[in-house]
Amino acid sequence: MTTWTNDELSRIETSDELQMAPLRGDGTARPAVPIWVVRDGDDLYVRSYRGSGGTWYRAAQSSHAGHIRSGGVDKDVTLTEETDPGLNDRIDAAYRSKYSRYSATYVTPMVADTARATTLKLMPR
């Protein structure tokens, strides 16, 4: 299994946004969209601000594959659903901490149940 390097984790963690391009069924990338990303230990996580109705999320959930760019890191990734309540609590805290300078208008939806239900772990391929 491929893992993130410490340099990749640090560069992505300190970037405000991640460009996510989920793959279509034929393996081609959809247009990239900017989303927020957080780190927990040696793992990276993303969520859909719009919950399960988010276009990029529906595509990612269907293919479980995508391409990301963030902090100078350019990688193909596998996306897996994360449902562990304890881990999701830590991810909530990571979103609140990393994006605290933004209005609650943006942060609150990222830690709501609808967004928590869309938590995806990014694994390099």
From TrEMBL:
Family matches, as InterPro entries: UCP028498
Top-rank taxon, per record: Bacteria
The name this protein goes by in its record: DUF2255 family protein
A Pfam short name: DUF2255
